[in-house]
Design goal:
Number of helices: 2
Structural class: alpha+beta
Shape: globular
Distance between the termini: 24 Å
Number of strands: 4
Helix content: 25-40%
Length: 85
């Protein structure tokens, strides 16, 4: 299963990417917090296990970091895929 990651920074900058699997995406979320110079232990970042359990019942996940950056993870499906015309 592929996943979409949407990031919105406090500055207004936005970023999105497609990931081949949840472990790679999870590593990117942790890297995001590190690049923002945030303390990983004090952030409410989900573990990979928590994300896997979440996506067994849900199609998306929202969270924010202490610096007002927020991110949205979504399963990549036909519903959110824009086909080339």
């Amino acid at each position: 299963m592929k996943y979409l990651l949407f990031i919105s920074y406090e500055s207004g900058l936005m970023h999105n990417a497609v990931y081949e699997n949840l472990p790679i995406l999870h590593d990117s979320v942790n890297q995001l917090a590190e690049e923002e110079n945030l303390n990983l232990k004090s952030e409410s970042l989900p573990s990979l296990n928590e994300l896997e359990k979440h996506f067994m019942k849900n199609e998306d996940y929202f969270n924010s970091l202490s610096n007002e950056t927020w991110y949205h993870i979504q399963e990549f499906t036909e519903r959110n895929y824009i086909k080339d015309v």
